[in-house]
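Sequence, structure tokens reproduced for reference:
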Amino acid sequence: MAKTTIQLEEKTRNKLKSLGTMNDTYDSLIERLVEFYEEARKREYFIETQHKIAKTGKFVELD
């Protein structure tokens, strides 16, 4: 896969570096952060949907 270059402020790079471990590359660390963010968005959507359903009362009780 092709490599690219991104520019970061030194402060941002240092924060990113502090999140990694000895075996992490910046690519693997960023990939993990993206996956974490995507999962968090899914959980947030799920919770918002539950709240909307609870507010409208449009749900079916399971026996």
User: Anything to note?
Assistant: The radius of gyration is 19 Å. The first helix runs from residue 10 to 19. The chain has a mean pLDDT of 89. Residues 6 and 36 are 21 Å apart (CA to CA).
